Amino acid sequence: MSVSTPAPGSRTPVGPAAEAPSSGTRRTATPPTGTHRTRGTVVKYAVLSLGAVAFLFPFYYMIVGSLRKTTTGDLSSAVPSGLTGGSYTAVNGAISLGRSLLNSGIMTIGVLLCTLVFGVLAGYALAQLQFRGRGTVFASLLLVQMVPFQLLTLPLYVLVVRDYGLGDNYVGMILPFAINSTAVFLFRQFFLQLPQSLFEAARLDGAGELRILWKIALPMARPAVLTAMLLTFIGPWNEFLWPFLVTKNADMQPLAVSLASFLSNLQGTVANPTGALLAGACVLAAPAVALFIVFQRHFTSTDIDSGVKG
Fold it and tell me: Quick check: helix, strand or coil at residue 175?
């Protein structure tokens, strides 16, 4: 038996290299099979479905419970049976839903308009204009956000009702919420993300700041405007404390105050107290939910870079 010896100058592989296959192929990571991919998709959608049910069930229970002839307050009331609109009729007869909705709408629209006007102007100034004390103003804005509104209730009441005489008045209900520091912060952050070349080009063309804001910045800020609208809408629409303090006339009270007055004397006045409670909650929540459903697809940011041409 002859033993072959390596030729002079050649190297003999040692260790793992000696065991490597001579075919020259490389090992590749095995891609996930169709079964693994399908299983992961099923688990993902199962978790999402459970989360959706957990969030939507209270709304479903609220609607069904408000329409039942008898609502006990337990899970059995989630079964739709004996549906009627008697609870809504009882609420409407006690507080005049139409007038209360009108008051809430006037207050909310007034707050929205003031918030958007002052928020856009202040946000643009803090983002694009250079002036002394800009950092101090922005720091003060952040500090204001940390002050609870309840601490300002007493001085605001004295100022608005006693000094200005705006009790039982729409202006008195709107005035404390006219400037929203959260909206100012939101618009400032959005305007900072816009390409500076757009503003510089407009200034070189002789455009003033208000024209730049109206023609360039504001059309591109539609997602921020809609977000500010939704966030601002929920606050004044559900506001109870301030309108309760400044309105003594029942015809001027918004829906939240009217419902609170009705619910405080609920027992013994209606046949289905729990159903009336859920009916009032449905009426109060419906506009905010509808607003979100209508505008939710607009809350994605637009492609602002498309305005810059190379």
Answer: helix
Classify domain 99-253+288-304 by CATH architecture.
Orthogonal Bundle (1.10)
CA distance 272 to 283: 17
Domain boundaries, the chain: 41-84, 99-253+288-304
Helix (H) or strand (E) holding 50: helix 34-67
Q: How far apart are the first and last CA of the chain?
A: 78
- Closest CA relative to residue 94, chosen from 261, 253, 239: 261
Asked if residues 87 and 270 have their Cβ atoms less than 8 Å apart, the reply is: yes
Judge if pTM exceeds 0.90.
no
Asked if residue 213 lies in contact with residue 297, where contact means CB atoms within 8 angstroms, the answer is: no
Per-residue pLDDT tens over the stretch 152-185: 999 999 999 999 999 999 999 999 999 888 899 9
User: DSSP secondary-structure letter at 265?
Assistant: T
